[in-house]
Write a structure and sequence with these properties.
Layout: H1 2-19, E1 21-22, E2 28-29, H2 43-69, H3 83-121, H4 127-147, E3 171-172, E4 174-187, E5 195-204, E6 212-217, E7 223-225, E8 248-256, E9 265-274, E10 282-285, E11 288-291, E12 294-302, E13 305-328, E14 335-343, E15 351-356, E16 369-370, E17 376-380, E18 385-393, E19 396-404, E20 411-418, E21 421-430, E22 432-433
Antiparallel strand pairs: 1-2, 3-22, 4-13, 5-6, 5-7, 5-8, 8-9, 10-11, 12-13, 13-16, 13-17, 13-21, 14-15, 14-18, 18-19, 20-21
Pfam families: DUF6598
Protein name: DUF6598 domain-containing protein
């Protein structure tokens, strides 16, 4: 009996050690240590928070538009709005949208009928020209009365708020587009490399709907493209393009110069909207939804080519306008290379600011400022901007880089040396307006 009792006690101890203490009624108190799992917001919570952010930004935009349209009235402030004022702004916006929507439906129906008649009367009409004509007519129907000519370029300058203090609620970091490259991916028909290309590539945003030119060449100043380097040398944007509530639109008319102007060929004719990413991924960060910056490429075929555009969306961005000035020494003879700008978030993608060939020297002003091909980029307000000079000085490989933490306004400067030449890289910082007065409208002069 004692041996059996001892075995029973031992089995009980083992059971208590491995399974916890057995309680009356068959329940068991566990002795295991329970680690509390980290709880992340559910998908619905994240999406709800994202929608609230969208509604908040929309109200900010409605208030900014009301203030811009009512300069003599006491400005509205989002944080001080009454429920009645919010409802009034939303009703007014909804009424506008209903009118615009109905007019758009009527116009589309009329255009469909007109297009059918046109195609019946001229079945050989180039579809690329039909699509571009439709793109232009839609723009003119929506914006011509308020914004003027379809060909007009943006008159909103860069560095709007670098030196000017702004009232609360007027400016903030915004989502913007970073344009990395435009490439002639393929050519068709009887075209052969190299190509002498001229024309315009422009982007349009919701801030003023005008052309923000990123490439422009006249017929007497073509860029020669070859199969080994089929990229357009971009010279813009003139200011950072914004994504307020909708996608960007690209407006492209490119031609190939031939021996006779009458024989010039249409390389590309496009008007289309650019959705940067196929999907937007919301990431949980301390319980708050954030959208990460992204990069994507799209190919568009028209006329005698396929163009590949590579662009990115920079979230919560600040506009950075870059300048480079020689402050000591002179430009080093024999230096060939490139100046780039990039952001830490997508460091593998770089914006080409200036390309200097083996026999080239940059254009330098009397004050030592180097003329860059491009100078406006965007960077996250919480991120980092990098400006890089890379190339060769004789047989020596050069790679110099300076870093900048974004500011809401003002300027930052850093020293960069290539050989015995010391340069000062300066970045002018500017927030974006929530709404910009229409300075381009004929009604406003």
């Amino acid at each position: 009996m004692e041996a059996g009792s001892d075995m029973t006690k031992e089995a009980g101890r083992k059971r208590e050690t491995h399974s916890g203490t057995e309680m009356a009624g068959g329940s068991r108190r566990t002795s295991r240590k329970i680690t509390k799992k980290t709880e992340y917001p559910s998908v619905l919570d994240v999406m709800d928070a994202a929608m609230n952010q969208v509604l908040k930004e929309q109200m900010e935009w409605l208030v900014a538009r009301w203030n811009a349209e009512s300069p003599d009235a006491t400005p509205l402030v989002v944080e001080a709005l009454t429920e009645e004022q919010r409802e009034s702004l939303e009703r007014e916006h909804l009424a506008r949208e209903v009118l615009i929507g109905q007019a758009y439906v009527d116009k589309m129906a009329a255009e469909d009928m007109a297009r059918l008649k046109m195609e019946e009367s001229n079945p050989k009409k180039d579809p690329d020209e039909l699509y571009y004509q439709e793109y232009r007519e839609n723009w003119e129907w929506k914006y011509a009365e308020e914004f003027g000519s379809f060909e007009a370029t943006t008159r909103i300058p860069t560095m709007c708020f670098t030196d000017k203090p702004t009232k609360p609620g007027v400016t903030k970091p915004r989502r913007s587009m970073q344009i990395f490259s435009v490439k002639v991916e393929e050519i068709y028909g009887d075209l052969r490399w190299p190509l002498d290309v001229f024309g315009i590539v422009a982007v349009r945003d919701d801030l003023d709907h005008h052309r923000n030119i990123i490439f422009e060449r006249k017929r007497d100043n073509c860029q020669t493209l070859n199969e080994e380097d089929p990229y357009l040398v971009l010279t813009g944007p003139a200011r950072a393009p914004l994504t307020l509530f909708g996608p960007m639109h690209f407006d492209i008319t490119l031609k190939v110069k031939c021996s006779n102007e009458l024989e010039d060929k249409d390389l590309s004719l496009l008007g289309f909207r650019y959705e940067c990413c196929e999907s937007i991924n919301y990431q949980a960060s301390k319980g708050e939804p954030t959208v990460s910056s992204c990069v994507s490429s799209q190919k568009h075929r028209s006329k005698l080519s396929t163009l590949e555009l590579t662009c990115g969306i920079v979230v919560s961005s600040i506009e950075a306008t870059i300048s480079v000035r020689i402050v000591d020494g002179s430009w080093p003879d024999g230096f060939s290379g490139r100046f780039f700008a990039s952001t830490a978030s997508v460091s593998h993608m770089r914006v080409l600011l200036l390309n200097i060939g083996d026999e080239d020297t940059p254009v330098v002003a009397t004050d030592g400022t180097i003329e860059l091909s491009r100078r406006v980029v965007s960077v996250e307000s919480f991120g980092e901007l990098r400006v890089n000079a890379a190339g060769w000085l004789g047989s020596q490989q050069i790679d110099r880089e300076v870093f900048f933490q974004p500011l809401k306004s003002g300027r930052s400067s850093r020293s960069l040396k290539v050989g015995s030449c010391e340069m000062e890289v300066t970045v002018a910082w500017s927030l974006f307006p929530l709404c910009y007065p229409n300075i381009s409208s004929p009604k406003n002069g």
